[in-house]
């Protein structure tokens, strides 16, 4: 009868070594898969560098020809006012007037209307001279002395402030957000008795630009949240 002691011993040693390698492999895989995902926030307040200011006035009348002449004079008066205050002609645009025939209105009370035509005219200022325009907005009552009443309150014609130099501050904000993310990751690693490793994956996140608050729309809050995955080492 053949003796299988040597073969059995070899098989036992092979199984033992296989078990050691498998255990070591699982351990290495687990170590490699240990990571932490953190978010880093960066915020910055910046002044708006572009403003769009619609100046709106209305005209009433029964004769379109006379209304045309009146609107032309009023436009010239407003443009002259804006130029006197420091704006350039290229920063001023005159929109086509919006005419409503009150007698043609289906639900209008035509018997009570004293005028047939209601004309809305908009002159739009688009400028990077934000501080200058803000001052002019508070001085627009001066146009009353020149016979023009600027209307306000229509949601379509609100003053809009923008910040257009995002690319100038992006690197600084991303650096700050990444730094804040790393600080959070280091704290996590310390609490878990680990050492922080290299970045495995990073997502810059979306930048958002909003008004700081309802009372100061000319000051913008820029915000970005980055997501960073770090490996963890024993």
From TrEMBL:
Q: Which Pfam families match?
A: SIMPL (PF04402)
Matching Gene3D superfamilies, A to Z?
Answer: Protein of unknown function (DUF541), domain 1 (3.30.110.170)
Q: Which InterPro entries match?
A: 26kDa_periplasmic_antigen (IPR052022), SIMPL/DUF541 (IPR007497), UCP029033 (IPR016907)
Q: Which domain of life is it from?
A: Bacteria
Which interval of the chain is the signal sequence? none
User: By its UniProt entry, which PANTHER family does this protein fall under?
Assistant: SLR1258 PROTEIN (PTHR34387:SF2)
The protein here is known as SIMPL domain-containing protein
Species the sequence originates in: Bacteroides caecicola
């Amino acid at each position: 009868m053949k003796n299988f002691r040597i073969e059995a011993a070899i098989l036992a040693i092979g199984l033992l070594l296989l078990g050691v390698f498998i255990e070591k492999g699982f351990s290495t895989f687990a170590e490699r898969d240990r990571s932490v995902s953190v978010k880093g926030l960066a915020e910055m307040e910046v002044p708006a560098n572009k403003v769009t200011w619609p100046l709106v006035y209305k005209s009433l009348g029964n004769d379109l020809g006379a209304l045309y002449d009146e609107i032309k004079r009023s436009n010239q008066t407003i443009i002259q006012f804006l130029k006197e205050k420091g704006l350039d002609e290229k920063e001023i645009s005159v929109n086509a007037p919006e005419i409503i025939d009150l007698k043609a209105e289906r639900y209008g009370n035509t018997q009570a209307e004293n005028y047939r035509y209601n004309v809305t005219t908009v002159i739009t200022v688009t400028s990077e001279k934000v501080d200058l325009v803000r001052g002019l907005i508070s001085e627009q009552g001066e146009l009353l002395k020149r016979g023009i009443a600027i209307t306000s309150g229509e949601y379509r014609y609100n003053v809009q402030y923008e910040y257009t130099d995002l690319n100038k501050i992006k690197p600084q904000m991303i650096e700050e957000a990444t730094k804040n993310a790393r600080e959070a990751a280091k704290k996590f690693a310390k609490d878990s008795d680990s050492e922080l490793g290299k970045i495995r994956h990073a997502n810059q996140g979306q930048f958002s630009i909003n008004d700081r608050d309802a009372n100061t729309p000319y000051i913008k809050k820029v915000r970005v949240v980055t997501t960073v995955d770090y490996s963890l080492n024993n």
